[in-house]
Amino acid sequence: MTEKAHTFSTILASTVHDMKNSLGMMLDALNSILSSIPDEQRVKSANHFGVVQYESSRVNNALMQLLAIYKIENEKLPFNPGYHNLYDFIEEQVVGHSPLLDAKGFEVEIDIDDEIELFFDDSLLTLIITNVLGNAIRYANKKIRVTYEHEESHSILINDDGPGYPKSMIDMAGNYLLGINQSTGSTGLGLFFADKVAGMHQHGDKRGKIALENGGPLNGGIFKITIP
Questions:
Q1: CATH 3.30.1360.70 fits 82-227, yes or no
Q2: Taking residues 216-220, what's their average pLDDT?
């Protein structure tokens, strides 16, 4: 990287960090405002509140992913895997989306044994699962199902009842920045980040990975992240 490019990258990372902090303060203020509104009024405006919370959280998540990618490229991103109860971890992510899920009348099923323990970085995986659940809520109809598979490695699958992933996205496997599309606003950031983080999880000669599929019990899109 040239000195000029490095300087720009550093400025960009600093700006993203500052924006993330400001947005975090806005989210805290929004939650305080919502908690002070009478229950009856909050119920009537639940859909609007849910959308505002979701979109704010979505921007915050994207900024955190951008900052994490910068650190990955500069080998400065902390990687702290540990053993976590998978059911509790997924349930925590679902609860974080509850305002929008409730507002839109979504049903989320977690079909995971509550005794399964996996070895992963929960902070980084939170960014991935949060992003995938948010996209599922945006494009699906009414149902989301989260499951677990174990063959040679451990996989978490998020299936929805939406129209599924476009073939062009499925065919991008491993080249997710090719998903940048200015006409649709697609950046490919979430998938690129998820692929990077999955690959940081290693066991012997095996590395984590992600995959996009269609079908499953809900006959929609399936996001699959595999951890060795």
A1: no
A2: 95
